[in-house]
Amino acid sequence: MTSDTAPTPLTLYRGLPGTGIYSWSPFVIKLEARLRFAGIPYRVEAGSMRNAPRGKVPYISIPAEILYEDGSHPAPPVVMGDSTMITKTFIEKGLTNDFNAKLSGSQKLQDMGLIALLEDKLYWYNVCVHYHQFSIWMGGWNLS
What we know:
Elements: E1 10-13, H1 26-38, E2 42-45, E3 59-62, H2 64-67, E4 78-81, H3 83-92, H4 105-137
Parallel strand pairs: 1-2
Antiparallel strand pairs: 1-3, 3-4
Helix pairs in contact: 1-3
């Protein structure tokens, strides 16, 4: 992550204002880790689900010239949603490496299964724990 004053081509909208603040969303964590692993400079903005192309965070804004080097899309910036689709696009455009390129077919299936478990099942456990801890922090809710 870069400082707020340094100009960067990519903006990551993750639903929380400020830099250096932990996001509990596994989708934000996944995309932010991918950007860091690839050494892609970015800045963080709060963003809004209303402005998100798929109605959820994270999403990014990236200059079209970076994605389309042939100059066919000079402006405005491209806004993309869905952390998986963003990662796939970055791999296709050569902006980041495919971590699964050297895996066998069986290992790729295991990877898909693990991703499905983490994103489709354990995500909701994470949400439950997050809000349960929040309710304890707030002094508990009287649900009776």
